[in-house]
Specification:
mainly alpha; three-stranded antiparallel beta sheet; 59 helices; about 65% helix
C-alpha cells in the first residue's frame, strides 16, 4: 500500500518533496504535504497560508486549515488522529493518505470541483461542520502545545538534566575522593606496619647473631667499669655546676647590697611626691628639679653599665679557672687509667687471642651474610627497576592520555573559534546580500511605480540615476525631507544630502563630457566636447606655483647593496625559525627576528654598550624623547631618520657630552613601554629592524623572520627602507576648470624594497598538533627553552622578558586568530601592489622544507642579479641613484641680472642658459632649482624685486632672439613653421609678475571654479526636481480625470422608475398590441433620456479636460524649465567673463605697472517673468527663480571694502504680442517657447561676442599706441639728425667762402647733403616689443579657445532645452490625448450598456413577461439583480498551430532545421570532416546534451554504431557532404522518377526568366515539384484541436532552406544542383545516369545488373518499378534520337558533391581533381575518335572502360536509408551495415 501511495504522490501528483515509504510518517507529520495534495485537486484554496516548517505552530496552523476540506471529503479528522499524525505514529499517516486516495479518485471520476461539493452540501450539515471545526480548532490548540512552550520545556529539561549531571558528578567526585583518601591511608598504614615488622625481624636476627658470637669475659669490678666511670664523671660535673651556681647567686646578693643605685632610686622617688604635696614649687625650681632628676637617672644608668661590665669580667675569669681545674682533673684521670692498663697487659694478651679467633669466625659469618645480602639487594634492585619501568610506562600512558585530552580540547576550542569566524563571515555576507537584494527589490518596485506613472516608459535618465544610487549603496526611496534642513539634521536627512550630492556629481560629469542627457540631439549637428585650454591651465598653474611653491621631497635613506632582501611569514609553529636557522648556518644569510632584536636592544641598554664611543658611560634617554615615543606611537612618520628616538642636545655649557648608542636608546624605549605593561609600538619595531639592517655588511643578504605581522608594519617598513610612502595622504586635486597638459607628472612608484615575501602555509590543525607535540616533548625533556618564539631572559631592575609556557599555550588560539585577521590585508599588499608573494606548503619534513625554501631563495637572488646586470648594460643609472638625486622642480620667475651676477655667471652664459631653458617643452618648469637652498634664495630675491618691474636681461634676450629668428626677413624657407600657442612646442611667456597679482588672482580663480561647479550642480538638481514634478503631475491629472469620469449619475433612478411602472401593468394588458406599442414608445423615451444624460456627462467631461488643459500649469513649468536653462547659460557666460578677466590681468601685469580699470559689470541673461501671470497663492515658491544674484568673483574675494552688490535680473514676458506671433511663424518657430529660448541664446551669444570684440578693440588700441609712440621717437630722432647736418653744412660754407676769397677761380659744384642715417633702436626696447607681441599672441589664442568653448556649451544648453521643452509638450499632449480616448471609450461603453438594456426590455415586452430581475446600470456596465453582468458573447478562441509529432526514427521539420543551423554554423561550405561530424552527432545524441531533441532510435545509438553510420555516409573518405546526410535524414519523402525530375527542371527553367540558373524563394514556391504542394486534409470539428500537419508542404520549404545560398540577398537556390542531389538512387550507377540526364535535360538509358541490388529484394522492386515508369514515359513520348553528351555536362555530373571536390584520397582510384578528370575525359573522347567540342551518344560513351569505372564508383549519387538501418540495429542489436533504400 505504501508503494501505491508513493507512486500516486511522486508520479501523478509530483509533490514538492519526494516521498519515501520509510519516511512517510515523518514527511506528513506537519500537514504541509497533505495540504499540497488537496491543493493539487483544487480543494485547498488557502494553500498559500500553509507553513512548511516542522514546528508546533506550523502543525497547528496546517491541521486547522485542512480540517474543513477533509470534513467536506468525508474524512473524519478527530484529535486522536491528528495527534497520531503529528507524533509520527506508525501507520497513522498511511491510513489517512489511503482514505484520501480513495475519496479523491472517486471525486475525479465524478468530475466534481470543490465549489460544487460545497454547493451540494446541505445547509444544516454545513453549519454543523462549521461548529465542529470551531470545536476542533479550540481543542487542537489546547492539545498541541505552542512552539514557545515546547522550546521552554526543552530548555528547562536540558538545564534540569545538566544540573542533575553536575550534582551527580559533584557527589560522585566527593565520594570517589573520600574513597581514594581512605584507600591511600589504608595503604600507608599497611606499609608502615610492614616496615615495622620487617625492622623488628631484622633487629631480632641481628641480636640473635650477636648473642651467638659473644665470648664470656670476666666482668671488671663495679667501680672500674665504663658506666661507673661515666657516672662518676657526671657527678663531679654536677657538683662543680652547683658550686658555680651558688657562687654566682652569692655574688649577686653582695652586688645588690653594695650598689648605691637602689637607695637613690627609692629615696628620690619617695621624696618627689612628698615635696610636691608639701609645697607648690615654682617653674624655675621645677625645671631645676627635673634637670637634677634627669642627671641622677643618667648617672645611675652609667653606673649600672660599669657594674655590668665588671660583673662580666669576673664571670669570665671564674669560668676560665674552672676550665683549667677540669683539664687538670682529666689529665690525672688519664694517667691513672694508663697505669691500670699497663698492669693488666698480660691478661689482655690472652683475651686478644681468644678475640682473634672469634673475629675470624665472625668475619666468615659476615662474609656469608654480605654475599647473601648482596644477592638480596640485587633482587631488590631488579624489582625496583621493574617497578620503576612499570611506573614510568603508566605515567607515560597517563601523559599521553592527558596530551590527547589537551589536544582534543585545543581542537574543540579551535573548531569553536573557526565556527564563530565562519558565522561572522556568513552574517557579513548575508547582510551584504540582504542589502543588495533590498536594493534590487527597491529598484524593481521603483521601476514598477514609474511604469504606472509614465505608462510603461521609464526615462533613461531616471534609470541611470537609480543604478548609480544602487551601486553607491544608497536607498532609492526618500527617507527624509530636505526642504528645511535643521542645524542638527537627522541620519535620514544626511542620507538624502549624500544622495543629492551623488546625483549632482553624476549630472555634472555628464554635462562636462556631453554624455547621457547632455548629448547632442539626433536631428542637429554633433560637436565634440571642448578641449582643454592649455594656455589657461598654464596660467593657473604658474599663479598657484608662485603663491604656494611646492616643497622639495626629502631624500630617501641610503642602504648598501644587498644580494637578498626577503621576509618569511607564517603562522605559529610553521617552521620559520627552524628552517631559517639552517639557512643562516649554510649560506651565511643574516636572519632578523623581532624578538631577538628587542632582546639585543634590552641587553645593550642593560650593559651600557655604546655604538661608536664604547669607552664612555651610558646615559639614559632624555625624558622628552621617551615621552615623544609614547605619545606618537600612532604617527606615520617622524622628523628624522632615527624614528621617534631622535637625539636632542643636552644642557648648554657642558664640556663633554656622552650619548647612548642607537640600539641602547631603542632598548631604553622598549623597557619603558614594557614597564608600563604596553606593547612595543610598530614605529619602534620598524626602527629597530632598520637599524639592524644598517649594521649588515654590503653584498650580503638578510631575511626577516615573522616580520611584518600586519599591514601597518609592512607600510612603515616599506617607507623606512626607501620605498613608496603609502601612508602619506595625497592631496585632493582642486576642482580646476582647465589643466596644464605640460604640468610635471607624478613620478611612478618605486619598486618594492623587498625581493620576496614567502608564506609558509600550514593548516590550523597542523599548528595545533605541532604545538601539542612540542609541549609534550618539553614536559618530558624538562624546561629546555626551544622553539621559534622563545627568547632568553634578560634582567635589569626586575625587568624580565621570559616565556611563560602556560601563557603561550593559552595564546595559541588567539595568535592563530590574529594571523587570520591580519593576513588578508598583508596578502593583498604583497601580492597585489608589490607582486612579491610566494606560497609554500610547509606541511612536510624539515629537510624537504629546507630544500624548497633554499631553491626559492636561490631563484630570487639570481633574478635580482640578472635585473641589475641588465640595468648596467643598458647604460642607465641604478634606481637608487636616481631616487637620491631626484628633486621636485620649483617653478620660479626668471632671475634678474643682478642675481645672476652675484652667482658668478657671465652675460653670455646667462643668454645661453636662458635660451636652453626657453626651449624646454615645459614652460612652467623652465627654471629648475639645483638645490633647495638656492631655489629658496632665488625665489626670495625675485619675490622682493618682482614688484619693481625690472625685467631679466637674459630672458629678454632669449625671447628677442627667438622673435627675430621667427619674424626676420633672412629666414630660410626650409625652416619649420612657428608653433601655435598652447601646443606642446610652444614656449610660454613667464615674465615676472607683481606680488599683488598672483595673491589676488589665485583665490579669485578658486572662487570662479567653486561657484561654477556649485551653480551647475544646483541647476541640475532643479532640473531633476522639475522632471519628477512633471511626471507626478501628469499622472495625477490622468487619475483625477479618470475618477471624474466615474462619478455617479441619475440613470439608475430613471431605469428603476420605468421598471416599476412596467411591472405595475397587468399581465392581460401587456399582451395587447397597443400596450406593447406604448411600452416600446416609453422605452424609446427612456433610452433618449439616458442618451441625453450620457451626452451631458460627455460634455461636462470635455469641459473638465479643457479646464485641465487651460489651467496654465504647462506654461508655468515650461517657463520654469526655460529659466533653469537660462541660469545654466548665465553660469557659462559668467565663467567665460571670469576667465577673460583672469587672462587680461595676468598678461597685462607682465608688461604694465598699473592694471587697466575693471570693465563693465557682469552680463545678465534675462529670465521669464512667471510671477505676474500666476495666482497669488502660488507666487511664494516660483518667485525664487525670477531673480538671480550675480556677483563678481573678484568682489567676492575682497576683504570687505566694497559691499556685495545684488541686482535684479531683467525679466521678459512669456506671452508674446499678437504681432510677434505672425513674425515668429514666418521665421519657422512653431512654439513661442522655442522663440524665447532662441532669444535668450542670442542674448548670451551677443554678450559673448561683445566681450570678445571689446578685448579685440583694446588690444588693437594698445598696438596702435605702441606704433604711434615708435613713430614719434623715430621722428624726433630724424629731426635731431637733420638739425645737426644743417649746422655742419653751414660751417663748411663759411670755410669755402674764406678759401674763395684767397683763391678766386671757378666755383666748384655744390655737394648735396647726405641723408641722415636710420636711427638705431635699443636692443632692450626690441626685446620688450617682442615680448609684448608674444603676450598678445598667447592672450588672443586663449581668448579664442574660451570663446569657442563657451559657444559650444551655450549651444548645447539651448539644444537640450529645446529637446526637454518639446518632450514636456509631447508628454502633456499624450496625457490629454489619453484623457480624450478615455472619454470616448467611456461614452461608447455607456451607450452600449443602454442598448443592451433596451434589447432585454424589448424581449420582455414582446414576450409580455414581467421584469423579474432588477435592471441596474452601474457606470458602463449593465447588471441583472446586481450580480449578473450582461456581456457580449465572446468570439471563439483561435485554433492552435499545427504541430508535427515524431514517429519512429523520422526527424521532424523543426529538428531538421535545427540540424541545418548547427551544421551550417560549423561548416558553411557544406563539406565537413568526418571526425568533426562524428563529434557533433555524439554530442547531440548523448543523454546529457540531447535529451528530448531526437527520436528514441537516435538517442539510444551506441558509439560503435555511430561510427558505422558515419562510415556509411563518408564512403571511405575523409570529408562528407552534410546536405546528403540531411536529405537522407528527411526521409520518407516521395522519391522522384527521372521523367519527374526532367519535368521539374523544365518548370524551373520556365520560372527562371533571366536564365540565371537560380530562383528566389517566392519563385521556387510557385513551381510545382514532383509531389503536390497542397493536399486536402481533414479539418477537425473541435476548434481546440490543431489542424493536421502538412509535412510535404513544410518539407518543400526545408528543401529550399537546405540548398539555398544565404549569402545572397534575397536567398537563391541553384535548381540544377538541387535536382542533382535528388537524382540519387539506391544504385549509384543508376543515380549517375539520372544526374547526367538532369544535366543534359533529356533522359538517358543505361542497363546495369548490380549484385548489390540483387541481394536486396525491396530495392530490386523499386528499381523495376522505376524502369517500368520510364518505359511508359518513353512509349508515350514515342521514339526519338539520342542526343550526345558534351564534356562540360559530363564533368559537372562527375564532380558533383562537396565531399567529392574537397577530399582527394590517393588510395581511391576514381577520386581525382577536376582538372585530372578533364584530362581523362578528353583522352577518352580522343580515343573514341571525337573532338573535344563534339558530343558523343551516351550509349557509345558508357561502353568505354574509364567511363564505366567512373559510373560504378560514383558513390555521391547513392541514396542511403538511415532510418531503415536504425530500425534494423534497434530490433536486432547488431552493428550497422550498409543499408540503402
Amino acid at each position: 500500500m505504501s508503494d501505491i501511495l508513493c507512486r500516486w504522490l511522486n508520479v501523478e501528483l509530483r509533490l514538492s518533496k519526494t516521498v519515501d515509504p520509510r519516511s512517510i510518517s515523518k514527511d506528513f507529520a506537519n500537514g504541509y504535504l497533505i495540504g499540497e495534495v488537496l491543493h493539487k485537486y483544487q480543494l485547498q484554496g488557502d494553500f498559500h497560508l500553509f507553513l512548511k516548517s516542522n514546528t508546533a505552530n506550523s502543525k497547528l496552523n496546517n491541521f486547522t486549515l485542512m480540517e474543513p476540506t477533509l470534513q467536506l471529503l468525508g474524512v473524519s479528522l478527530d484529535l486522536s488522529m491528528a495527534q497520531a499524525v503529528m507524533r509520527e505514529q506508525h501507520g497513522a499517516a498511511t491510513r489517512l493518505l489511503y482514505q484520501l486516495f480513495i475519496l479523491l479518485q472517486k471525486k475525479r471520476k465524478a468530475g466534481l470541483t470543490g465549489t460544487a461539493m460545497e454547493a451540494m452540501q446541505p445547509a444544516a450539515t454545513a453549519c454543523l461542520h462549521r461548529v465542529e471545526n470551531d470545536i476542533y480548532s479550540e481543542r487542537l490548540r489546547t492539545v498541541v502545545k505552542r512552539e514557545a512552550d515546547l522550546k521552554l520545556q526543552k530548555i528547562a529539561l536540558k538545564y534540569e538534566i545538566k544540573g542533575r549531571e553536575i550534582y551527580d558528578k559533584s557527589v560522585m567526585a566527593h565520594f570517589v575522593e573520600e574513597q581514594r583518601r581512605q584507600k591511600v591511608q589504608e595503604e600507608m598504614r599497611l606499609q608502615d606496619i610492614e616496615k615495622h615488622r620487617h625492622a623488628r625481624r631484622k633487629q631480632h636476627e641481628i641480636m640473635t647473631r650477636i648473642q651467638t658470637a659473644i665470648i664470656q669475659i670476666p666482668k671488671p669490678p663495679p667501680n672500674r667499669t665504663l658506666k661507673a666511670l661515666e657516672k662518676q664523671q657526671q657527678n663531679r660535673k654536677k657538683q662543680e655546676a652547683q658550686k658555680v651556681h651558688m657562687e654566682i647567686a652569692e655574688f649577686e646578693k653582695n652586688r645588690k647590697k653594695l650598689s648605691p643605685a637602689g637607695g637613690f632610686g627609692t629615696s628620690s622617688l619617695s621624696e618627689a611626691p612628698r615635696s610636691h604635696g608639701s609645697q607648690l614649687q615654682r617653674p624655675e625650681e621645677l625645671a631645676q628639679a627635673n634637670s637634677e632628676y634627669i642627671q641622677k637617672i643618667r648617672q645611675r644608668l652609667e653606673e649600672d653599665a660599669a657594674a655590668r661590665q665588671q660583673r662580666e669580667k669576673r664571670r669570665r675569669r671564674v669560668l676560665v679557672e674552672q676550665m683549667k681545674s677540669h683539664e687538670a682533673q682529666e689529665e690525672a684521670l688519664r694517667e691513672e687509667q694508663l697505669v691500670e692498663r699497663l698492669t693488666r697487659q698480660s691478661q689482655l694478651e690472652r683475651r686478644l687471642a681468644v678475640q682473634l679467633m672469634q673475629l675470624r669466625q665472625q668475619k666468615d659469618v659476615l662474609r656469608q651474610n654480605r654475599v647473601f645480602r648482596e644477592r638480596q639487594y640485587q633482587e631488590q634492585r631488579l624489582r625496583d627497576f621493574q617497578e620503576a619501568l612499570e611506573r614510568e610506562a603508566a605515567l607515560a600512558r597517563q601523559a599521553s592520555l592527558d596530551h590527547a585530552e589537551e589536544t582534543r580540547k585545543e581542537i574543540e576550542v579551535h573548531d569553536r573559534i573557526a565556527t564563530e569566524r565562519a558565522q561572522a563571515r556568513y552574517r557579513k555576507h548575508s547582510d551584504s546580500c540582504r542589502e543588495i537584494l533590498e536594493q534590487i527589490v527597491d529598484l524593481a518596485t521603483k521601476a514598477g511605480e514609474y511604469r504606472l506613472l509614465t505608462g510603461n516608459l521609464i526615462p533613461g535618465k531616471l534609470m541611470r540615476e537609480w543604478k548609480e544610487l544602487m551601486f553607491c549603496g544608497k536607498p532609492l526611496y526618500d527617507s527624509g525631507s530636505l526642504e528645511e534642513l535643521p542645524a542638527d539634521p537627522t541620519p535620514e536627512q544626511f542620507i538624502e544630502v549624500e544622495k543629492q550630492e551623488i546625483l549632482n556629481n553624476q549630472d555634472y560629469d555628464e554635462y562636462m563630457s556631453m554624455t547621457g542627457e547632455w548629448t547632442w540631439p539626433e536631428d542637429g549637428e554633433t560637436k565634440p566636447p571642448p578641449s582643454n585650454n592649455n594656455i589657461l591651465g598654464h596660467v593657473v598653474l604658474r599663479l598657484q606655483t608662485i603663491v604656494n611653491p611646492p616643497k622639495p621631497d626629502t631624500l630617501p635613506p641610503f642602504f648598501p647593496r644587498f644580494t637578498l632582501k626577503a621576509c618569511v611569514l607564517g603562522k605559529l609553529f610553521s617552521g620559520k625559525t627552524t628552517c631559517l636557522t639552517r639557512i643562516a648556518k649554510v649560506h651565511h644569510i643574516h636572519i632578523l627576528s623581532a624578538n631577538v632584536l628587542i632582546q639585543e636592544a634590552l641587553d645593550a641598554h642593560q650593559l651600557g654598550k655604546l655604538g661608536r664611543e664604547s669607552t664612555e658611560s651610558c646615559l639614559t634617554l632624555p625624558t622628552k624623547d621617551i615621552d615623544q615615543v609614547e605619545t606618537d606611537t600612532e604617527m606615520e612618520e617622524s622628523s628624522q631618520d632615527s624614528g621617534p628616538l631622535a637625539q636632542e642636545p643636552q644642557q648648554q655649557g657642558a664640556k663633554k657630552k656622552t650619548k647612548l648608542s642607537v640600539r641602547a636608546q631603542h632598548g631604553a624605549a622598549v623597557e619603558k613601554f614594557l614597564r608600563k605593561g604596553r606593547s612595543v609600538p610598530d614605529e619602534l619595531l620598524v626602527d629597530i629592524a632598520v637599524e639592524a639592517i644598517r649594521a649588515i655588511p654590503a653584498d650580503s643578504g638578510w631575511i626577516l623572520d615573522g616580520f611584518p605581522v600586519d599591514l601597518t608594519q609592512a607600510k612603515l617598513l616599506e617607507k623606512a627602507l626607501g620605498g613608496s610612502d603609502t601612508g602619506k595622504e595625497r592631496k585632493n586635486k582642486r576642482s580646476n576648470l582647465s589643466v596644464d597638459s605640460n604640468a610635471p607628472k607624478e613620478p611612478p612608484p618605486p619598486s618594492p624594497v623587498l625581493d620576496l615575501a614567502l608564506l609558509l602555509d600550514v593548516s590550523d590543525d597542523h599548528v595545533l598538533d605541532r604545538a601539542a607535540k612540542q609541549a609534550y616533548e618539553e614536559e618530558r625533556s624538562g624546561p629546555a627553552g626551544s622553539g621559534e618564539e622563545s627568547c632568553a631572559p634578560a634582567r635589569e631592575h626586575n625587568v624580565v622578558i621570559a616565556r611563560d609556557k602556560s601563557l603561550g599555550k593559552r595564546q595559541i588560539q588567539h595568535r592563530i586568530t590574529a594571523f587570520q585577521d591580519t593576513w588578508p590585508k598583508l596578502e593583498k599588499w604583497f601580492s597585489g601592489k608589490q607582486s612579491i608573494l610566494m606560497r609554500l606548503n610547509a606541511e612536510m619534513s624539515e629537510d624537504m622544507l629546507f630544500r624548497k625554501v633554499e631553491s626559492i631563495l636561490y631563484q630570487v637572488m639570481m633574478q635580482s642579479e640578472k635585473g641589475e646586470v641588465v640595468v648596467l648594460d643598458s647604460g642607465k643609472a641604478p634606481a637608487v641613484s636616481t631616487a637620491l638625486v631626484q628633486v621636485t622642480p620649483v617653478a620660479v620667475p626668471a632671475p634678474t641680472e643682478s642675481t645672476l651676477t652675484q652667482e658668478g655667471l657671465t652675460p653670455a652664459v646667462k643668454c645661453s642658459s636662458s635660451k636652453s631653458n626657453s626651449r624646454s617643452p615645459k614652460g612652467s618648469q623652465s627654471n629648475i632649482e639645483k638645490s633647495t637652498s638656492e631655489g629658496k634664495d632665488v625665489h626670495r630675491k625675485l619675490s622682493k624685486s618682482g614688484s619693481g618691474g625690472a625685467v631679466g636681461r637674459s630672458r629678454t634676450l632669449s625671447i628677442a632672439s627667438s622673435y627675430e629668428n621667427s619674424h626676420g626677413g633672412n629666414a630660410s624657407p626650409t625652416e619649420p613653421l612657428a608653433p601655435t600657442p598652447g601646443t606642446a612646442h610652444w614656449v610660454y611667456v613667464d615674465e615676472p609678475l607683481p606680488k599683488e597679482i598672483p595673491e589676488y588672482l589665485v583665490p579669485y580663480w578658486e572662487n570662479v571654479c567653486n561657484s561654477y561647479v556649485t551653480n551647475v550642480k544646483a541647476v541640475m538638481q532643479n532640473l531633476r526636481t522639475e522632471r519628477i514634478l512633471i511626471i507626478h503631475h501628469l499622472f495625477n491629472i490622468r487619475e483625477e480625470f479618470k475618477q471624474y469620469l466615474r462619478r455617479p449619475d441619475l440613470k439608475q433612478e430613471f431605469v428603476s422608475q420605468w421598471q416599476q411602472n412596467y411591472n405595475s401593468i397587468p399581465k392581460d394588458m401587456r399582451d395587447d398590441e397597443e400596450t406593447k406599442a406604448e411600452l416600446h414608445q416609453r422605452l424609446d423615451d427612456l433610452r433618449e433620456r439616458l442618451w441625453d444624460i450620457c451626452d451631458k456627462r460627455k460634455e461636462e467631461a470635455g469641459q473638465e479636460r479643457a479646464a485641465i488643459m487651460c489651467d496654465g500649469w504647462l506654461e508655468d513649468h515650461t517657463a520654469v524649465l526655460i529659466n533653469h536653462f537660462s541660469t545654466l547659460m548665465q553660469v557659462e557666460v559668467d565663467r567665460f567673463q571670469d576667465s577673460l578677466r583672469l587672462l587680461r590681468d595676468y598678461y597685462t601685469g607682465m608688461y604694465k605697472q598699473v592694471l587697466s580699470e575693471a570693465g563693465p559689470e557682469f552680463t545678465c541673461i534675462p529670465l521669464l517673468d512667471i510671477v505676474a501671470l500666476e495666482e497669488p497663492g502660488t507666487q511664494t515658491d516660483k518667485s525664487k527663480s525670477s531673480e538671480r544674484v550675480t556677483k563678481s568673483a573678484g568682489k567676492r574675494d575682497s576683504e570687505g571694502d566694497e559691499k556685495k552688490k545684488t541686482k535684479v535680473v531683467p525679466l521678459i514676458s512669456r506671452r508674446p504680442p499678437s504681432t510677434e506671433v505672425a513674425s515668429m511663424k514666418q521665421k519657422g518657430f512653431q512654439d513661442p517657447d522655442e522663440k524665447l529660448l532662441h532669444d535668450i541664446y542670442q542674448t548670451a551669444l551677443t554678450a559673448i561676442n561683445n566681450m570678445v570684440s571689446v578685448e579685440a578693440v583694446q588690444r588693437e588700441a594698445e598696438e596702435n599706441e605702441e606704433v604711434q609712440q615708435q613713430m614719434d621717437r623715430q621722428r624726433l630722432q630724424r629731426m635731431s639728425q637733420a638739425s645737426a647736418s644743417a649746422a655742419a653744412a653751414a660751417n663748411s660754407g663759411k670755410d669755402k667762402k674764406k678759401a674763395g676769397n684767397k683763391k678766386k677761380g671757378p666755383p666748384s659744384p655744390a655737394q648735396e647733403p647726405s641723408p641722415p642715417p636710420a636711427p638705431e633702436e635699443d636692443s632692450e626696447e626690441v626685446c620688450k616689443r617682442a615680448i609684448r607681441n608674444k603676450i598678445r599672441q598667447e592672450y588672443a589664442a586663449a581668448l579664442d579657445h574660451e570663446d569657442s568653448a563657451v559657444k559650444v556649451r551655450v549651444e548645447l544648453v539651448k539644444a537640450c532645452a529645446l529637446c526637454m521643452v518639446r518632450v514636456l509638450h509631447r508628454q502633456a499632449e499624450q496625457a490629454f490625448r489619453t484623457m480624450e480616448e478615455w472619454l470616448g471609450a467611456r461614452f461608447l461603453s455607456e451607450m452600449n450598456s443602454i442598448d443592451q438594456l433596451a434589447e432585454v426590455v424589448r424581449h420582455h415586452i414582446e414576450s409580455a413577461a414581467k421584469l423579474q430581475s432588477e435592471l441596474m446600470l452601474v457606470c458602463t456596465d449593465f447588471f441583472l439583480n446586481g450580480d449578473m453582468r450582461v456581456v457580449v458573447s465572446p468570439p471563439n478562441p483561435p485554433r492552435p498551430a499545427p504541430l508535427e509529432l515524431p514517429t519512429d526514427s523520422t526527424l521532424t521539420i523543426l529538428q531538421l532545421e535545427a540540424f541545418y543551423r548547427q551544421l551550417r554554423k560549423v561548416a558553411p561550405t557544406g563539406v565537413q570532416c568526418s571526425t568533426d561530424f562524428w563529434e557533433i552527432l555524439q554530442e547531440i545524441t548523448s543523454l546529457n546534451m540531447g535529451t528530448n531533441a531526437l527520436p528514441d532510435p537516435w538517442m539510444h545509438i551506441s558509439e560503435s554504431q555511430l561510427v558505422e553510420l558515419v562510415s556509411m555516409l563518408t564512403q571511405n573518405t575523409e570529408m562528407l557532404d552534410w546536405r546528403q546526410f540531411l536529405l537522407s535524414a528527411a526521409l520518407p519523402w516521395p522519391t522522384p522518377t527521372l521523367p519527374q525530375l526532367l519535368q521539374v527542371l523544365a518548370r524551373f527553367k520556365m520560372a527562371d526568366a533571366g536564365a540565371t540558373g537560380s530562383l528566389t524563394e517566392e519563385q521556387y514556391l510557385k513551381v510545382e515539384l514532383w509531389f503536390p504542394s497542397e493536399r486536402t486534409l481533414s479539418i477537425p470539428e473541435d476548434l481546440s484541436e490543431p489542424l493536421p500537419y502538412d509535412r510535404l508542404t513544410n518539407l518543400r520549404k526545408f528543401f529550399f532552406l537546405l540548398f539555398a545560398d544565404p549569402n545572397c540577398s534575397p536567398a537563391r537556390v541553384d535548381y540544377v544542383t538541387m535536382l542533382l542531389y535528388f537524382a540519387a538512387h539506391p544504385d549509384p550507377m543508376q543515380g549517375f545516369v539520372r544526374a547526367l540526364s538532369v544535366v543534359m535535360g533529356q533522359p538517358l538509358r543505361h542497363h546495369s545488373s548490380s549484385r548489390l541490388l540483387k541481394s536486396v529484394p525491396y530495392m530490386e522492386e523499386g528499381l523495376s518499378e522505376s524502369t517500368e515508369l520510364e518505359e511508359e514515359v518513353e512509349t508515350q513520348g514515342g521514339p526519338r534520337g539520342e542526343e550526345g553528351v558534351s564534356i562540360p555536362a559530363l564533368l559537372r555530373a562527375i564532380c558533383h558533391g562537396g565531399a567529392w571536390e574537397a577530399c582527394h584520397n590517393r588510395f581511391h582510384p576514381n577520386w581525382k581533381s577536376p582538372d585530372e578528370y578533364k584530362e581523362d575525359v578528353v583522352k577518352v573522347y580522343r580515343e573514341l575518335g571525337y573532338k573535344v567540342e563534339d558530343k558523343i551518344p551516351f550509349s557509345i560513351l558508357s561502353q568505354h572502360p574509364v567511363i564505366q569505372d567512373l559510373i560504378e564508383g560514383s558513390a555521391q549519387y547513392q541514396l542511403i536509408d538511415i532510418h531503415q538501418a536504425l530500425q534494423v540495429q534497434q530490433s536486432e542489436g547488431e552493428p550497422l551495415s550498409l543499408m540503402v533504400s
